[in-house]
Design brief:
Spore Coat Polysaccharide Biosynthesis Protein SpsA, Chain A; glycosyltransferase activity; 20% strand; glycosyltransferase; 3 domains; Glyco_trans_2-like; single chain; eight-stranded parallel barrel; TIM Barrel
């Protein structure tokens, strides 16, 4: 069994793309079964190709999984639902258990990856500090990767802590329990923007048949599998294999999420899942022909990779047009000799926009798809772009621009630096801007707005184009799976030269669109600017928790999404210093070229740490949690805080924050932090 690897927004094993179809397995009352073969045979026959566990797998489980063609994602079981900063021995135990659990199995071919945690409770994450919790998760991933560098690592997140995405995870994993199809579709689209560059996996999805019925479970699981595929996720995990479930030191008898009952008989959901996995996605209602247009100037050394990638694409109904914009290095002859099946246009030097317009004039397709000679489109790029147009809502579409795996420390730093072409999203589906290296547009809309403005010779043409598209009433869609590998500049000098060019292009944009810029010459965006990094909280982040931290969906409030992290293979203090310098210098270089402005304003801000409060603990044998205490406090005249406050309730100038730890047994410990002189009456 070949190792599972990330492949842009998806997974692959060798050269084959793999969609992970997993089911959660265990923990069971009484421990593991004597033999795994009966279960694993049924799991494989149902169409699953992976298992998700909540503990590290023993070697004989991996052997059985390998025999049945199943990959295994292990899980680190540790006290993540307790305040592990107040009791550092809990975190130390987690590190020891991770190292010990991997020691004997890290080389097993069936082990695909490890979840280093699952659903740190939202109230505890807020209590301990979101940035500190995220950094702890990242430390566990770093430890795991040092022991198993070939394995995939992730954290099982959920909507109430969207802000906890580890920067260094290999994929974004979310446990999602939405029983409404439109709501689920919308949230799957959101997850791609939370994930940034990396794949999205639904790490849990299920339905309790005790409350919803078996037929409803079957229908919803079937729909969720279909939606996960349509919304371009890299994997789906059904929760759970069996109704038999052991949690918090006891057998759970009042929830029935399994595909099979406690006696081992199949529920209707098992057949529904099998059928859903076997079905093929519905073809688009119409199949418009696409013309792929690649413009190049002196790209002899890089265009080969671009055109080879286009030749490997799985879609068949498209043509490729290469526009040579007056190259002097033999680019045209290279294309003619190595890719004779592609249409080649040789032009005198006229600039990027003029070259793109010439390619569009030659195109026979009803959709024009543009990319650059330093990009390598994914094998499914054309087919995934085409799907966006099938609804008729969008006149343009694009996807992410991902940096290929870095080959040096310099490339790793440049890939993480600001200033790369990126999309700007008005919401989770509609874009305000799409970079010209990954944009497709209907020929009708292209002609209606007059194509690209030829005054933009090297950059800025895509920004002007998208603004004019929107001014004309057209909408721009986004396809998260339609990615291109976009090589970044190979040196710091080349990177800064590129940023100078972008600044000069912004000067032209400012002259043409003055209302879209601030007085300081900075572009005004109405949407969120995406920079490739996963959504995550920093020490100065403002987080929407909802009043008293009770919002079901809690996220970072920011108009600029995080930058990519440095490739772990090249991460070092020197690399981080270089990245910090480029992050400081890049906007100043562009501002100078744009408006001859040099600013000393720091891009970093510091949020003053809150004053430490008094802390008390409340133990309830009956299992009373923060929800019960909050109800009592509200009844006693305490007032809830605002949606972004880091405290729950206030009265007479005293503020309280509450969190409840979860451990084995019915008893619960609630932690209370008090700012002020007044001591509340908290009755057990």
């Amino acid at each position: 069994m070949e190792r599972l690897q990330t492949d842009g927004k998806f997974f692959r094993a060798g050269e084959d793309r793999v969609h992970v179809r997993a089911v959660t397995y265990g923990p069971f009352p009484g421990g593991w079964p004597v033999s795994f073969d009966p279960d694993f045979a049924r799991i494989a026959a149902a169409g699953f190709n992976a298992l998700r566990l909540y503990q590290m797998p023993p070697p004989h489980l991996l052997d059985a999984a390998l025999h049945h063609g199943l990959r295994v994602f292990g899980g680190l079981k540790w006290a993540s639902s307790m305040d592990f900063f107040r009791r550092p021995e809990l975190l130390a135990t987690a590190r020891v258990d991770l190292a010990g659990g991997l020691r004997d199995i890290t080389g097993h071919p069936a082990l695909a990856g490890v979840y280093i945690g699952n659903e740190v409770p939202a109230d505890l994450a807020r209590w301990m500090g979101p940035a500190k919790v995220r950094e702890t998760l990242e430390e566990l991933i770093t430890l795991g990767r040092s022991l198993g560098p070939h394995l995939l690592f992730a954290y099982g997140n959920y909507p109430s802590t969207e802000y906890l995405e580890p920067e260094n995870a290999d994929f974004t994993a979310f446990n999602v329990y939405l029983e409404d199809e439109p709501a689920l579709r919308r949230y799957l689209r959101r997850l791609h923007h939370i994930a940034g560059d990396r794949p999205v996996v639904i790490s849990e999805f299920g339905l309790d048949t005790r409350r919803n019925g078996e037929e409803r479970q079957a229908a919803m699981l079937s729909a969720a599998i279909r939606l996960a595929r349509e919304e371009e996720t890299a994997g789906f995990t059904a929760y759970a294999w069996s109704d038999r479930w052991w949690n918090a030191g006891a057998e759970v008898l009042d929830w029935d999420f399994g595909l099979i009952r406690r006696d081992g008989t199949a529920k209707p959901a098992l057949a529904a899942v099998t059928e859903a996995f076997a079905s093929s996605p519905a073809p688009p209602r119409s199949v418009p022909r696409i013309s792929v247009i690649v413009c190049t100037r002196n790209g002899r050394e890089r265009i080969g990779g671009c055109l080879e990638a286009i030749a490997r694409m799985t879609d068949s109904d498209f043509e490729t047009i290469v526009v040579d914009d007056g190259s002097s290095d033999g680019t045209g002859n290279f294309v003619h000799g190595h890719f004779p099946e592609m249409t080649l246009l040789r032009l005198p030097p006229g600039g990027l926009s003029a070259a793109r317009n010439a390619g569009a004039a030659t195109a026979t397709g009803t959709i024009l798809a543009f990319t650059d000679d330093d990009c390598e489109p994914d094998r499914e790029w054309v087919s995934r772009l085409r799907r966006v147009f099938s609804s008729g809502r969008f006149a343009a579409a694009g996807g992410p621009n991902l940096p290929p795996p870095a080959r040096s420390c310099t490339e790793a730093v440049v890939s993480s630096a600001p200033g790369a072409p990126s999309h700007v999203m008005l919401d989770d589906e509609e874009a305000e801007h799409l970079p010209g290296c990954n944009i497709a547009v209907t020929k009708e809309a292209f002609d209606a707005i007059g194509g690209f403005d030829a005054r933009f010779h090297t950059a800025g043409d895509d920004v002007d184009f998208c603004w004019r598209m929107r001014d004309a009433g057209y909408h721009l869609g986004f396809a998260p799976g339609a990615f291109v590998w976009h090589w970044r500049r190979p040196s710091f000098r080349a990177f800064l030269r590129q940023q100078r060019g972008y600044g000069r292009a912004e000067k032209l944009l400012l002259e043409k669109h003055p209302r879209r810029f601030t007085a300081n010459g900075e572009a005004i965006w109405h949407g969120f600017v995406y920079n490739g990094g996963p959504l995550r909280a920093g020490s100065d982040s403002i987080i929407y928790h909802g009043p008293m931290g009770l919002a079901g969906y809690q996220s970072v409030v920011d108009r600029m999404m995080p930058l990519r992290g440095i490739d772990p293979r090249f991460d070092s203090p020197r690399a981080r210093c270089s990245l910090a310098f480029l992050t400081w210098l890049q906007p100043r270089v562009r501002a100078w070229e744009r408006k001859r402005i040099w600013t000393w304003r720091s891009p970093w801000t510091c949020k003053r740490a809150p004053e430490p409060g008094r802390e008390i603990e409340l133990w309830s044998e009956a299992g009373k949690t923060r929800d019960g205490f909050l109800r009592d406090l509200l009844a006693d005249g305490w007032k809830p805080g605002g949606p972004t406050d880091d405290w729950d309730v206030e009265k007479n100038g005293t503020r309280l924050l509450l969190a409840t730890e979860s451990g084995d047994g019915p008893g619960k410990r609630t932690l209370v932090r008090i700012w002020g002189d007044f001591t509340p009456d908290l009755r057990l």
